[in-house]
Design brief:
This protein is mainly alpha-helical. The chain contains five helices and no strands.
């Protein structure tokens, strides 16, 4: 059940983010989404094996809202700078970038998780070890650190590349 919270909230928040970006500044909605993602990633850094389910669900909801608010204005801003006769190519490249980002995110997060768990264990770990939840929590901290760095980088890029009005 908890694994469905993020995509469900994101599915609700994305159209809302699109509607808000039509009413207000696309950049403002995009940055608001990124700030929510950053705050959430910071919250994830403090999770441990004793964290309440309520806090975890709250963080997943916040992350879903932030991601949803980021998606629509980001897509619109990217496509708004492309000439009309190149929208198909631009859309496919944008989709490719999203897919590569998802793949790299999982790969980097898993690398951080299992490398940290292996260091803690003193031997190679490639799966969850129920007898050592603290190793998993420590690995998650590093995994979320990587995610936080990515979110902060996205925020910096968005600030630097603000569209001229």
């Amino acid at each position: 059940m908890q694994s469905t919270i993020f995509p469900l909230i994101m599915a609700i928040a994305a159209p809302l983010g699109g509607w808000l970006s039509d009413l207000f500044s696309q950049q403002l909605v995009l940055l608001t989404g990124l700030v929510l993602i950053i705050i959430t990633q910071i919250g994830f850094l403090f999770l441990d094996s004793h964290t309440s389910l309520t806090l975890i669900i709250s963080l997943l909801i916040s992350n879903g809202i932030g991601t949803g608010f980021f998606i629509a204005p980001n897509n619109t801003l990217l496509m708004s700078v492309v000439p009309q006769n190149q929208l198909g190519v631009a859309g496919s490249l944008q989709s490719l970038g999203n897919n590569i980002g998802n793949i790299l995110g999982v790969a980097l997060g898993s690398l951080a998780l299992f490398t940290t768990m292996s260091i803690d264990a003193g031997y190679r770990v490639s799966t969850y070890l129920p007898a050592h939840p603290a190793w998993f929590a420590h690995g998650l901290t590093w995994s979320f650190s990587v995610s936080l760095i990515c979110a902060l980088s996205g925020f910096a890029i968005s600030i630097i590349n603000r569209p001229a009005h």
